[in-house]
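Researcher: I'm preparing a figure for a lab meeting and need a structural model of a single chain. I don't have an experimental structure, so a prediction will have to do for now. The sequence is pasted below. Please return the structure as tokens so I can convert it later.
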Amino acid sequence: MQCKICDNAQGNRTYHVREMMFGYRDSFEYLECSQCGCLQRVQAPADMAKYYPAAYYGFLPVDSKPPNFLKRIAKRQRSVYALWDRGLLGRVLLRLFPYPQLRALAKAELSRGSRIVDVGAGSGKLLLAIKRAGLEELLGVDPFIERDFRYPNGLRIRKCSIYEVTGSWDLIMFHHSFEHFADPLETLRYCSKLLSDKGRCLIGVPTVSSFAWRKYRVNWVQLDAPRHCFLHSLRSLELLAAKAGFRVEDVVYDSFELQFWGSEQYCQDIPIHDERSYAENPSKSIFSREDIRSFREEARALNARKEGDQAIFCLSKTPRGESP
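Model: Understood. Here is the structure written out token by token.
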């Protein structure tokens, strides 16, 4: 079989991966490219909706009630510091309560007038955090939510795909949604059309250029079959970006302890949504507090070594006439 990213057909390997988030245990074939390293789903199931039930984490509701005065000030200060490095209080709060997806937006050099689309926004949690910093031109899109909705503060989340978005935008974000697209090249090319000349694209994805993939293979929790169509290596994402007219400006690793406890559960045939799961019943799980603390520390060390199992890629458009 041929790699859909680099077209290589030699020396590729296949794996059979089970659906384990909800415990369906249906098996799906994935191809690993021997050249660019990309791991890709071979064939989609006939009914993808089955694998995005209401309990899927991206759809869980966000509490949009205005927090009390002190919490409102604290959250605003954290957001302002995350985006623009302004404010001592925000700096302290971001250190105490990290928000890697929000902090990664500093790479996009935003202004209060910047226009932002969040693709796969789910309930809009990240956009709500951005709005606290004073940005207004925000739009969330997600084809799997039940319906369009609008928060009291004016934030819109539309039930639609990126291909239904029009206009000119300064930032398009994919925070753990890009790996769900069946044609990532077409998706990036469409994003290029939507972005202004100095616009950027942020892509937060699991990566096979990681310790967790090497250790756990088919039991790696971030494989998430069959929802994840492509799991990129650093090389494959760079190749894909170049084909779409982008260059990778920066990579920020933001993996956390899930890569260990989730994968270890899969090794023991325990789904994420299971009464024995750490996600559902920490006190009844197979892990102690010390185990989780150790996993968290190891995740930080892996991020520092650029071996964490997920990262945020900052892409900029390649100027016309230049090579990516």
